[in-house]
């Protein structure tokens, strides 16, 4: 399991690289043929990790309901974030997986509500949710790479 948390941290470094090195106008641009932007994909990853791991375990999320409402599955960008939200997501990219790993090692995830994901991957326990979260984050990193190319054109 330690390696799964290492993979999450590495992916989050990649996402942070986009936040730090991409001009905001490119982060927030929705290119033709897309329904979201680089920013939304990064914020969505933050929210989804919480919903999959804490939410399905019956535990409170470590993010606000406002972030959930803006970036959960089924949403799309409505407005650009303010500076406070932008900085918050940058911080949460790293602090949330650290907390998840600590809580996992402490045995906090003792119950779990089984869930069928959109790509038809069943999640039956928190280990499944953590593994699926990595797959999910990889999908969104791929989307971000495509968006990054599209906003440059």
Description:
The chain is built from six helices and two strands. The radius of gyration is 15 Å and the shape is globular. A hairpin with a 5-residue loop joins β1 (115-116) and β2. The chain has helices at residues 2-21, 24-28, 38-55, 65-71, 83-105, 126-152; strands at 115-116, 122-123. Helices cover 65% and strands 3% of the residues. α1 runs antiparallel to α5. A two-stranded antiparallel sheet has the order 1-2. The longest helix has 27 residues, at 126-152. With 153 residues, the chain is mainly alpha-helical.
Task: Itemize the secondary structure elements and their pairings.
Blueprint: H1 2-21, H2 24-28, H3 38-55, H4 65-71, H5 83-105, E1 115-116, E2 122-123, H6 126-152
Antiparallel strand pairs: 1-2
Helix pairs in contact: 1-5, 1-6, 3-4, 3-5, 3-6
Number of strands: 2
Give the helix/strand class: mainly alpha
Strand percent estimate: under 5%
Low-confidence stretches: none
Gyration radius, rounded: 15 Å
Major sheet strand order:
1-2
Task: Give the overall average pLDDT.
Answer: 97
Main sheet characteristics: 2 strands, antiparallel
């Amino acid at each position: 399991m330690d390696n799964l948390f290492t993979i999450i941290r590495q992916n989050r470094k990649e996402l942070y690289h986009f936040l730090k090195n991409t001009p905001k106008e490119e982060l927030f641009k929705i290119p033709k043929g897309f329904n979201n932007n680089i920013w939304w994909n990064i914020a969505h990853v933050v929210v989804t990790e919480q919903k999959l791991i804490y939410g399905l375990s019956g535990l409170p999320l470590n993010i606000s309901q406002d972030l959930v409402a803006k970036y959960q599955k089924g949403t799309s960008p409505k407005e650009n974030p303010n500076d406070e939200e932008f900085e918050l997501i940058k911080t949460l990219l790293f602090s949330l997986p650290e907390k998840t790993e600590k809580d996992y090692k402490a045995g906090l995830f003792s119950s779990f509500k089984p869930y069928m994901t959109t790509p038809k991957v069943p999640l039956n326990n928190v280990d499944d949710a953590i593994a699926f979260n990595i797959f999910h984050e990889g999908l969104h990193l791929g989307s971000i790479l495509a968006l990054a190319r599209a906003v440059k054109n």
